[in-house]
Predict the structure.
Amino acid sequence: METIPKTLLIDSLETMPDQLEVEEVIEQIILLAKVERAKRQIDNGEFYTHEEMKETYRKWLE
């Protein structure tokens, strides 16, 4: 299960309109969780460089 800091969620909600759809809140939470996961992956070195991805795609296209 993904986690996000509560303060990040509160800050995000404060930028949204006073009346909003529940689905919008859920989508925002999911987006924040994905961004936080990506940040953790980058911090842990769990990513591919641009050159590594170009090489991977080149192999796929062979």
